[in-house]
Amino acid sequence: MKSARRQTRLGMVRGIEREGVERYLGLPYAAPPIGHLRWREPQPAEPWRGTFDASQFPNRCLQVSAPDVLHDRATPGEMSEDCLYLNIYTPAGEGAGRPVMFWIHGGAFILGSANSYDGTMLARDHDVVVVALNYRLGIFGFQNIAGLAEVYQGSGNRGLQDQVAALRWVHDNIADYGGDTNNVTIFGESAGGTSVLTMHAIPSARGLFHRSICFSGTDVNVGPIDGIAPLHEHFELEGDDLLAAALAASPNELLEIQQKIGGPASPQVDGVVVTETATQALLACGAVGPPLIAGCNKDEGTMFSSYNEEAGIDAAMVESMLPMFSAWVNADHPADYETWVKTALSDVAVGKQMERWWYDVFRAAALRNAAAAHRAGAGGWVFNFNVPTDDPLGVAHGSEIVFTFNTFADDRATGLFTHDKSVTNEELARLWSSMMVQFARTGNPNGPDLPEWPQYSDDAACLIFDDAPHVVHDPDGAEVRAAYGMSSETPLSI
What we know:
By secondary structure, the chain is an alpha/beta fold.
């Protein structure tokens, strides 16, 4: 590795160069959200003087420990409330106008970091600029305390506002790193995929991105969630006294409250930051809206069921969760999905049923929103990721990440999961990442030497990405689409 330097409009920046790619790590896109800025919307970062050292990974946002099933390697960077930084990977040397690929990490909005994702090979092999960001998580990024003071309106979506602030920073500064301000693709997995979908429904994000790729994302909750109650229960205070105590509390004390709450964090349609559902926004934007690729993996639910087994969740508890899953899959008519489950999956073991529910959560969102993007005229494509693997969990949640960043060539595992390192998988990774970059470059994943991939239209075309990628028409079937809340006759009646 050697030093890399760039003169930017914000000042001189020193990063590192490796394998033909310059890495600029830990660039601040917003002020540290500490002190009185805790739970406030992101504020502009202070300009620096002299040369900014961007050679080390930044702090990770505060988070609870991940379940053992999610661990694969240590992630660099200390945990801190001061964490609003991004990492840039750009081809070394002269160059301008490169497509920008803006990665939003997953982790149920309570875990994860930009530092887990190495954009080196994606940038080098495809001549693109890769940006990965940290955003506030859990109680710091998604606790709705709007009832405590006017300045906390939108506090239930602060993590999403962080993402928008980072996009705005990219819009203003990415040309200094060889990127095209007018060609930014947002892409992300799990909570990152949910963020990608939701960005369409955030007015302040419009015009800051031009294409979107959703890996295993979901639609957000409709309606705000009051987050004051857990704070009140912990501090036994109200009003201004409660606010003062919460602002004065240590980060660890707030993490303790978060652990008591349990579960993932949840962005919401609050009418302040997020004004409608992604589907509504995609239809409203019409043909000028960002095109969308969306899909999920063959065995989405296995990782979650593995974790649930370790946590000791029994059959009765799983059954009690069906109404919640039904609302995730089909928000408008959850009873339709619940009825379908009880009929179609009546002979399936409860644990395996839950695996299917998780798959349907991600699949329904992909179909619904890709169909909306196609119907609007912007363009929508659907995939099912199904690369063969010997992993006991199968093609689990997160399996596509290592293919996207194409990190099979060495030991730098990217993301939460890895696959077997084989020549075949390396080749498939190059093909998969080429399709994603082609979409980022042109707004269409089709191109020379790439598999034909029709839009998700009346024939419900779906790319099955396995060791021989091919298109299948309507693999879900009319009955399943109806259970998802889509017309049994056509996937385009939203």
